[in-house]
Automatic annotation (TrEMBL):
Matching Gene3D superfamilies: Aldolase class I
Family named by the database record: Belongs to the TrpF family.
Keyword RNA-binding found: no
Protein name, as recorded: N-(5'-phosphoribosyl)anthranilate isomerase
GO function terms (MF aspect): phosphoribosylanthranilate isomerase activity
Keywords: Amino-acid biosynthesis, Aromatic amino acid biosynthesis, Isomerase, Tryptophan biosynthesis
Class of enzymatic activity (EC top level): isomerase
Top-level taxon: Bacteria
EC number: 5.3.1.24
């Protein structure tokens, strides 16, 4: 089995970005969602993007964002991909893909086989499906909370788009996650933090080493 791609999401400072690059991660996630402790102001995002360009992929995370916010972020950072982490419909995903001409990732919250089946609605639109743990209904955030789902739910999934795995991945369990699911990409955020929104450079290195021995 080929080694998966690695995304470190919620990068918010140069040290974390440099750690992800040094550990050979493929993608850095930049969060544009105000309630998140990892949310970036445009100026900070621009500085990180300049540091990242040509060294690691830049994925912007948005939650039911309007076009103006996405446009501002794209213009500031020259993103490589849009990660849609809210209730965006296939039609909305297609609209954004057409407008911005960028790769589109669609994150889907998973707790049941029916949730996995929803991915097929995005087969001809999303370039990557990101299966994430479903958060409680009253949760303030749609992800980044350290929750995981039953990976066996993905055992029968055969969609057209590439897919990745998120939700509660840590240096301690990512190797098992890859072995069980065969995910083409693994994505972590809180799993490499010492506190909400605070990335730990040693955990980033350990995660990447475990995901790609």
């Amino acid at each position: 089995m080929n080694s998966p791609e690695i995304k470190i999401c919620g990068i918010s400072d140069p040290a974390a970005l440099d750690a992800a690059i040094g550990a050979r991660a493929d993608h850095a996630g930049l969060v544009f969602f105000a309630p998140s402790p990892r949310n970036l102001a445009l100026g900070d995002a621009r500085a990180l993007a300049e540091r990242a360009t040509g060294r690691i992929g830049k994925v912007g995370l948005f939650v039911d964002a309007d076009d103006s916010l996405i446009a501002d972020a794209v213009n500031a950072t020259q993103l490589d991909a849009l990660q849609l982490h809210g209730e965006e419909t296939p039609e909305r995903a297609a609209q954004l893909k057409a407008r911005f001409g960028l790769t589109v990732w669609k994150a889907l919250p998973i707790a049941s086989p029916a949730d996995v089946e929803r991915a097929r609605q995005y087969d001809d639109i999303a370039d990557l499906i990101l299966f994430d743990a479903k958060t409680p209904k009253d949760a303030a955030l749609p992800g980044g909370m350290g929750l995981r789902f039953d990976w066996s739910l993905l055992s029968g999934y055969r969609g057209k788009a590439r897919w990745g795995l998120a939700g509660g991945l840590t240096p301690n369990n990512v190797a098992d996650a890859i072995a069980q699911t065969g995910a083409a990409l693994v994505d972590t955020s809180s799993g490499v933090e010492s506190a909400p929104g605070v990335k730990d450079v040693d955990r980033i290195a350990a995660f990447c080493k475990a995901a790609r021995p």
